[in-house]
């Protein structure tokens, strides 16, 4: 039995959605989705209103997902222009810089509108047009949001690449989507240090077509290398373009952005989101999950390089005319009280972060939380990985003083917005459970072996039985991969890649990925990507990567490495390999543990038995199961003997 924590009465009475309303609306949303979404679709402004609500085929081989397909709109106009009359002078983006002594910026809707129009005209001047791809490689500065909205304004498709990714990862993404332009900054201050972003972009661009241009935002003013026929400064170009830029009329199903995310095989895939359905879903979930009320200060601590930053810093909040706080720094700089000092300074009402941050701050004790005033907080949220009940309790009790509901939002890059989450005024909470589905979302638990749908209390794999407007539409340039990844294994449903349990109250508990995707500090990492980085090193002949439980990160990265015959396993080489992966992919991919293994456990047909590798990495080798099918059973003894994670 798990604890149930009731919705605070003061929240329930003022919320948009209480328990009765949730039940009534949820029933309507699944019984008559056309009528339900026809109404919800009107929460945004259309240039030409849609007549058709949904047109969905989940059949493997002919998967096609369309929402509001005959409507036209512009996402940037929905986030900016339509607010000007009513709240042009209200803050849209509240920018808190890395340096706590630098002044915060309150940027109004009108100011964002003006900057976005200019930015859009700069893009046009650089030859970017409707349907062209633009890669955005920027720190957490307002220009990142301007760049996204400027693309949306002229119908260009943005692909934001997290500024923590390496030049190699950046180049791969530029090349995969055949971007015309990369937008970067001279440098990115974070936690008191500076990342040389422009230098990274320069390195990446050496591996890209010569025609790719580079637009540079001045953030630090540091010295950078310059390529006169390729690079331009944003501020210089903005000075020479008109102030007005009419929004381009886009079809609901025109792509809004591509965002790369790790899968279980091969290179990261470009998740494609389109304009109409995504925006409706972003706006709706932002308003309802956070019970967002006009004038509230809302803070999502994610980076715009991840989907959470797209939907819940930029598109959702701005479509709703919210005040969206954007934070350039890290939770532990200048000290572990930074989050709470920002909450106090800006009187933050909604705070949305990741379990990994909560766990790290929990380790610093209560004192540093309590010395900051958190009385403005009303709603807390978490996303990215299952939250352990201890961390949940600390968040609820210490950060929120038991006053603020914690929404545990389960979703994915692919889903565009929240799919399973409690609603602050409607759903009693259970620490560690994402609780119940959002409107229109029909989760099911399947037996992983047979694919049979399980009813009642059950454990298995999580699928979604029908579409919702924010669903991804395809993998950029590879619709087959889209169908293979999500619609093949369990026909007729969307396969999430997550395992889950449903309890006696119908609450969902996500148990983590069931595929070869790791969740490291809330960031998705494909084991295949790390393996290919490792084997690209001249000393490595073979590599296998698995996850293991890690107190702070959720999962740590455990690598089994077989060296070339002439190489010796040394500590120096271990460090070299860790740094190698770090520089190949980015700091988030740095292996935690590397075990040199003379051989890997393989079946006679040569398939690596990851089940065994996972068990050894978990230091749980008492239950290795059947090893009789191994080609060389003795390798297992060596692996156990030299395991790196000893409890
Ligand atoms: C995991 C992030 C449990 C899950 C929005 C999912 C979660 C993956 C939760 C997607 C949560 C995300 N509880 N697990 N509240 N939120 N996950 O694409 O495994 O970066 O499949 O999207 O994170 O990660 P992604």
UniProtKB/TrEMBL annotation:
Domain AMP-binding enzyme C-terminal residue range list: 529-607
Keywords: Acetylation, ATP-binding, Ligase, Magnesium, Metal-binding, Nucleotide-binding
SUPFAM superfamilies: Acetyl-CoA synthetase-like (SSF56801)
GO CC terms, sorted: cytosol
Protein name: Acetyl-coenzyme A synthetase
Domain AMP-dependent synthetase/ligase: 81-467
Residues annotated as binding Mg(2+): 535, 537, 540
Alphabetized InterPro entries for the sequence: Ac_CoA_lig, ACAS_N, AMP-bd_C, AMP-bd_C_sf, AMP-binding_CS, AMP-dep_synth/lig_dom, ANL_N_sf
HAMAP family: Ac_CoA_synth
CDD domains in the cross-refs: ACS
Positions of the Acetyl-coenzyme A synthetase N-terminal domain: 22-79
Encoding gene per record: acs
Family indicated by similarity: Belongs to the ATP-dependent AMP-binding enzyme family.
Residues that bear N6-acetyllysine: 607
Biological role stated in the UniProt entry: Catalyzes the conversion of acetate into acetyl-CoA (AcCoA), an essential intermediate at the junction of anabolic and catabolic pathways. AcsA undergoes a two-step reaction. In the first half reaction, AcsA combines acetate with ATP to form acetyl-adenylate (AcAMP) intermediate. In the second half reaction, it can then transfer the acetyl group from AcAMP to the sulfhydryl group of CoA, forming the product AcCoA.
